[in-house]
Amino acid sequence: MLMGQCLEEFEEHLNFNEKSKWTIEGYVKEMNYFKEYLENQYNGPVYVEDITKEEIKNYLNYIREKGYKASSRNRVLFVFRSFYNFTQAENITDKHLAKNLKPIKTRKKKRVYLTEKEVKQLVKKINHKIVKAAVQTMYYTGLRVSECVNLTFDDLDLENQVLHVRQGKGNKDRDIPISDTLLDILTDYLENKRPKISSDYIFATKRSGELSGAYLNSKLKEGVEKLGWKKKVTAHTLRHSFASNLVKNDINIYKIQKLLGHSNIQVT
């Protein structure tokens, strides 16, 4: 079977199993990179059953040389395993080429997190009212950036002070309480700062009707540079800060797991 056809069926398989939109897009994109790599190597179309384990190893080495960090290469390896789980189940391939490939060892980094005072300092330096509100929302809820920028008005219940996260990572729904502090921030944002547009997204620019995670991260970077901080701060730092501050306040780890939407307590 041609690789292109197989990837179409793989995408259908992921959709059938109700994987999240971001999981499907990420998996298919990574496999298409691999397909393009093989087609360039052999100057022609690639058949799935002709791929060898050595070619997978060569590709992992290739992306290492291209600058992929160990954690990113492990993510690619995980995608390979998911792909070959599918091809084995569908009798497309004779062997599971990724089954015995071991993950690359990664160095554990010291996690950066921000205090509430630091977040307020950072928000003051961000010159974009929509990004300001999104940053504060992530800090007070622990949302992933993709979950935040995809929030719609149907997900927001200000009366009961609840955010409904629909189809988060792993296609899981969860509810997150809105603190009194965040309630005031969101109320002010919606009444006075959000553009008067018809977009369903809570965080939406007048120009595009939405807010991209990449743009949000770029504004965070600008704010950090203005403050002269040496530490790297991204949208994920806000999520980690939310969790770290809960730990400091002796919140039960299983409660934190539920709020973050982790399927495995070890991740939390």
Layout of helices and strands, plus pairs?
Blueprint lengths: L2 H14 L4 H22 L10 H13 L4 H20 L26 H10 L3 H13 L3 H5 L6 E2 L4 E4 L8 E4 L2 H14 L19 H15 L7 H14 L4 H8 L8
Antiparallel strand pairs: 1-2, 2-3
Question: What's the quick description here?
Answer:
This protein is mainly alpha-helical and 268 residues long. Helix content is 55%, strand content 4%.
| Biggest sheet architecture | 3 strands, antiparallel
Strand order of the largest sheet: 1-2-3
Helix content: 55-70%
β-strand number: 3
Computed structural class:
mainly alpha
Mean pLDDT over the full residue set: 87
Query: Beta-sheet strand percentage?
Result: under 5%
Report what the structure shows:
This protein is mainly α and 268 residues long. Helix content is 55%, strand content 4%. It is built from 11 helices and 3 strands; from the N terminus they run H-H-H-H-H-H-H-E-E-E-H-H-H-H. The two termini are 40 Å apart. The mean pLDDT is 87.
